[in-house]
Automatic annotation (TrEMBL):
<comment type="similarity">
    <text>Belongs to the 5-formyltetrahydrofolate cyclo-ligase family.</text>
</comment>
<dbReference type="InterPro" id="IPR002698">
    <property type="entry name" value="FTHF_cligase"/>
</dbReference>
<dbReference type="GO" id="GO:0009396">
    <property type="term" value="P:folic acid-containing compound biosynthetic process"/>
</dbReference>
<feature type="binding site">
    <location>
        <begin position="128"/>
        <end position="136"/>
    </location>
    <ligand>
        <name>ATP</name>
    </ligand>
</feature>
<keyword id="KW-0067">ATP-binding</keyword>
<dbReference type="InterPro" id="IPR024185">
    <property type="entry name" value="FTHF_cligase-like_sf"/>
</dbReference>
<feature type="binding site">
    <location>
        <position position="55"/>
    </location>
    <ligand>
        <name>substrate</name>
    </ligand>
</feature>
<dbReference type="GO" id="GO:0046872">
    <property type="term" value="F:metal ion binding"/>
</dbReference>
<keyword id="KW-0547">Nucleotide-binding</keyword>
<dbReference type="GO" id="GO:0030272">
    <property type="term" value="F:5-formyltetrahydrofolate cyclo-ligase activity"/>
</dbReference>
<dbReference type="InterPro" id="IPR037171">
    <property type="entry name" value="NagB/RpiA_transferase-like"/>
</dbReference>
<dbReference type="GO" id="GO:0035999">
    <property type="term" value="P:tetrahydrofolate interconversion"/>
</dbReference>
<protein>
    <recommendedName>
        <fullName>5-formyltetrahydrofolate cyclo-ligase</fullName>
        <ecNumber>6.3.3.2</ecNumber>
    </recommendedName>
</protein>
<keyword id="KW-0479">Metal-binding</keyword>
<dbReference type="Pfam" id="PF01812">
    <property type="entry name" value="5-FTHF_cyc-lig"/>
</dbReference>
<keyword id="KW-0460">Magnesium</keyword>
<keyword id="KW-0436">Ligase</keyword>
Length: 188
C-alpha cells in the first residue's frame, strides 16, 4: 500500500495536468462567478493570490473587491509560519514573493475575513489539495482561531477530484468557485 505522501504526489500530478489543459483551453472571463461571490462581502477585508503558471486568475475579481474594501495578497514571512496579507489594489508596486508569485512591495498588513485560496485540486466536500507546504492550512487555522473567516477555493472545474487524499490537518473550504459554477460543499 502506498503511503499518503505518495498518494498526494500522484493526485497533484494528475490535477496539474488537468489544470494545465483547462488553462490552455481558456475561458472569456473565468472570474465572473468569483466577482459575484465577493460582491456579497463588500466592505469586508478580502485576500486573494497572484496567479502563477496555469492557476485560474482572480485578479479581475480582486480589483473589483478593492473598489469596495481592503484587499490583500499573501506574503510568506518565514517557512512553517502562517501567511500574512499585505494591502493591494491595482497599480501597487509588486516584487518577487517566492514560488513565482508577486507581492506588494510595501503597505499595511490586513487580516482577511474572506480568503480566496489557490489550489491544485478540490472536491465537493470542501476538500483542497494544495502544493504540499501547508501554508494555507496553517493560515486558515490561525485566521479561524481569531474569528470567522470564509475560505473560497478558486479553480478550474477540471481540477475537481472526488477521491482526494485528505488528512486531519487539511483545512476545508467554505465554498468552491470555478469558471462554471459556485459549489457549496456537502459535509457528511
Amino acid at each position: 500500500m502506498k503511503d499518503l505522501a505518495s498518494v498526494k504526489a500522484t493526485a497533484r500530478a494528475e490535477a496539474f495536468a488537468r489544470r494545465q489543459a483547462a488553462w490552455k483551453a481558456g475561458h472569456p472571463d473565468p472570474s465572473a462567478l468569483l466577482r459575484e461571490v465577493l460582491a456579497r462581502h463588500r466592505g469586508e477585508a478580502v485576500a486573494g493570490y497572484w496567479p502563477m503558471r496555469s492557476e485560474i486568475d482572480p485578479r479581475p475579481a480582486l480589483a473589483e473587491a478593492a473598489r469596495h474594501g481592503p484587499v490583500g495578497l499573501p506574503v510568506m514571512v518565514r517557512k512553517g509560519a502562517p501567511l500574512r496579507f499585505r494591502a493591494w489594489k491595482p497599480g501597487v508596486p509588486l516584487v518577487e514573493g517566492g514560488f513565482g508569485t508577486l507581492v506588494p512591495e510595501e503597505g499595511d498588513w490586513i487580516v482577511p475575513r474572506v480568503l480566496v485560496v489557490p489550489l491544485v485540486a478540490f472536491d465537493r466536500r470542501g476538500g483542497r489539495l494544495g502544493y504540499g507546504g501547508g501554508f494555507y492550512d496553517r493560515t486558515l487555522a490561525a485566521l479561524r482561531a481569531a474569528g470567522p473567516v470564509t475560505a473560497i477555493g478558486f479553480a478550474w472545474a477540471a481540477q475537481e477530484d472526488n477521491s482526494l487524499p485528505l488528512e486531519q490537518t487539511d483545512a476545508l473550504l467554505d465554498l468552491v468557485v470555478t469558471e462554471a459554477e459556485i459549489i457549496t460543499p456537502a459535509r457528511s
